[in-house]
Automatic annotation (TrEMBL), chain A:
<dbReference type="GO" id="GO:0045893">
    <property type="term" value="P:positive regulation of DNA-templated transcription"/>
</dbReference>
<dbReference type="GO" id="GO:0031965">
    <property type="term" value="C:nuclear membrane"/>
</dbReference>
<keyword id="KW-0653">Protein transport</keyword>
<keyword id="KW-0509">mRNA transport</keyword>
<comment type="function">
    <text>Functions as a component of the nuclear pore complex (NPC).</text>
</comment>
<dbReference type="GO" id="GO:0006606">
    <property type="term" value="P:protein import into nucleus"/>
</dbReference>
<dbReference type="GO" id="GO:0031080">
    <property type="term" value="C:nuclear pore outer ring"/>
</dbReference>
<keyword id="KW-0811">Translocation</keyword>
<keyword id="KW-0906">Nuclear pore complex</keyword>
From TrEMBL, chain B:
<dbReference type="InterPro" id="IPR036322">
    <property type="entry name" value="WD40_repeat_dom_sf"/>
</dbReference>
<dbReference type="InterPro" id="IPR037363">
    <property type="entry name" value="Sec13/Seh1_fam"/>
</dbReference>
<dbReference type="GO" id="GO:0030127">
    <property type="term" value="C:COPII vesicle coat"/>
</dbReference>
<dbReference type="GO" id="GO:0090114">
    <property type="term" value="P:COPII-coated vesicle budding"/>
</dbReference>
<keyword id="KW-0509">mRNA transport</keyword>
<keyword id="KW-0653">Protein transport</keyword>
<dbReference type="GO" id="GO:0051028">
    <property type="term" value="P:mRNA transport"/>
</dbReference>
<feature type="repeat" description="WD">
    <location>
        <begin position="53"/>
        <end position="96"/>
    </location>
</feature>
<dbReference type="InterPro" id="IPR015943">
    <property type="entry name" value="WD40/YVTN_repeat-like_dom_sf"/>
</dbReference>
Amino acid sequence: SRLVQVSKNYRSVIRACMEDMHQAALSARDPALQSQYSTQVSILSAMELIWNLCEILFVEAAAAGPLMLRLLDWVRLHICDVDNMVREVLSSENPSKHELFWNVVDVFVLQGRMDEARHLLSKEASANPTSVNMYKILDDLMKKMPVPSLGNTQTLTEMELKWQHWHEECQRYLQDGTFASNSHMESICKILLGDERAILERKELMTTWYHFLVTRLLYSHPTVKPMELRLYAQMDLFLGGESSPEPLDTILMAAFEFEMHQVIKECSIALSNWWFVAHLTDLLDHCKLLQSHNLYFGSNMREFLLLEYASGLFSHHSLWQLGVDYFDHCPEYGRVYLELHIERIPLNTEQKALKVLRICEQRQMHEQVRSICKIMAMKALRNNRLGSALSWSIRAKDAAFATLISDRFLKDYCERGCFSDLDLIDNLGPSMLLSDRLTFLGKYREFHRLYGEKRFSEAAKLLLMLMTAHIAPCSFWMTLLTDALPLLEHKEVIFSAEQTYELMRCLEDLTAGKVDKQKFQQSNPTSARFQDDVETTKVEMLRLALARNLARVIVKEGTLEGS
Amino acid sequence: QVSVINTVDTSHEDMIHDAQMDYYGTRLATCSSDRSVKIFDVRNGGQILIADLRGHEGPVWQVAWAHPMYGNILASCSYDRKVIVWKEENGTWEKTYEYTGHDSSVNSVCWAPHDYGLILACGSSDGAISLLSYTGDGQWEVKKISNAHTIGCNAVSWAPAVVPGSLIEQPSGQKPNYIKRFASGGCDNLVKIWKEEDGQWKEDQKLEAHSDWVRDVAWAPSIGLPTSTIASCSQDGRVFIWTCDDASGNSWSPKLLHKFNDVVWHVSWSITANILAVSGGDNKVTLWKESVDGLWACISDVNKGQGGVSAVTEGQQNEQ
């Protein structure tokens, strides 16, 4: 019954859609648009019709008895062509005088709406005293007609017995010629008896073969069992030889024959969108109905359709998020499909990228996470947003790219003397270890920070470590040594003797060409000559500073405390 | 049902030989006998020309988009024996690399799965297949397979990257050892599968079924199953679907999709490999899907009407 509720929800959604479309069609000014909307409305109403029938036959699986009532409801709900006529007659001043009066009565009878029929007939009776007797008998018959009850107040056999008696009574009255003088009432009596020809005469009031089917069953086999429906469902009697069945007819026929797979197949062919079949199949699958059918595909039918539907969603700029949920509910191929599709979502904004990433991370799709982060890093780099690029490549754990970006940062520093995106670099934390260059960048920045906080000895130690531990790239040594200058020239002695020796060794390594001198000249191709001079001056200054520092420190270290 | 979503008027002055959607389905690259490569923005049904790339001296046969993680990169190959790699920098498209190592028309280019790096396979009428790998800093490394197909190679297509031993957890950060494979089709009526072993490319499989030149091959994307699928089409009007069920890739069995009345020029798979698009000289593009019982059924055809359709691409927008 929970499933029936779900089914009803689906139907109300379809109805709501239909209403919206209808409104849109009414308010649309462009005739092409209007006809488009109207087509949509008719498609949606057909969808609801089919769904409703499936709900009755499959989901609710109404048993004989209630089945009849449900089918009657179904017919009444969906055959709306006669509503206008009904309303017209009912709202007229003198309904019984209306030319369509008998049509409306017939409609009520055909749809099993006994009370309403009787109500109208009473009007006729009061207006026409001569037929009072006839009316009373007919009215009585209609009142006494046994209907399947919803509760358990009577068994099917009881009902059948009662119905049999009632049927015989009607038969007697007809044969006695009670209604002979009024053709209308006579035909109603014939309908009550389930006379096919009489019912068929009112073809235009029923409009469809399935209405005819239900009416016929009501008056000949009200206790029809679900499986017996197929015996009675025929289109030929109604359609005659004129028209051929439409897709809707084939689908409904398949439903009456309980050929669920046929229904799904026909719907897939007829409808251009997977929504209907995907959701209907899913519902039927939950009712455990599809598994009982022995098909090669078995329970994969549901997944197959859901996959198709969800794949379609992915080409939409925002509905793709729904697609993700659908894939989650496909146990076999859902994940793979999701992996393939999620990488293809255009990442126009960072928010979208983050959304996609969150989805991937929740599902441990590491490959996809990495791929997307790399794409975002590349995009950021192209737009010169180095900080963003760096954080993306860290997230992607892409060492090579991180190195590239760090180099760019360092180059920027050399050119401009300051860092961009300081916050990011300061808070790298353990991700610094992703790449050597990145580590250097982080540590170098730390050096600057220490210097700024006047923690000189720590800064000095760090600086030295950067060179001796070979964290710093050789091309940067000169810059580092230059950075050491102010520390060497400081009032207080900062570098210890040993550290000074180390610094001197670094300098010698640098200038002696053990370090690749080419790197210098490559990074400064223009005015290399001038640079050479600058380099030489720098080196000289460094040598001087180092020597002076060494002198001071030896004295300091050699001095005893207190003396 | 399948319906035409959009038609793009490219203003190419001559036959269009290839049209490819980029990774996200937002851009379309087309190339033509008029020696140009054009790039359009096709979002929301529009068509805005973004770039008109000139650089080839002969008809351009094929274009291929690289994975977006490398930036916006497009490769094109032409009758003029050149392969050009174009890159978008600061909003403008420029030539970033040109390869002239072939002695004859280069017929096909295909980028490898992004997991392998930035690698481009090129098939040429001189019978060779060259593999261009980007090594960094604007440098490309070239590996050549000479005499891959006698007379000429018409098509190349990479296999999706499958992590070997993926059932076992790979320690993160380590580069997994991929087995790189690709398929090629040639004028010797054969489809060949190539495998890289110890840095060398070797012929792994030879698939024989066609009776005329193979014009296109397409390796289907993997959906996680251990099976591999390749589609091949030929001048003999036949399209074959080759499947290999074992993971080692040794036994391939062909299934005839259909025999068309004319040359079939191109085949292309959808993202999830359940739809195959086929285009041929009979002026039609048809879409095919494998049904429940293993038979392939045509789910639509789009009649172009004006001239033969020589190229087909499956973007995600074509799915419905």
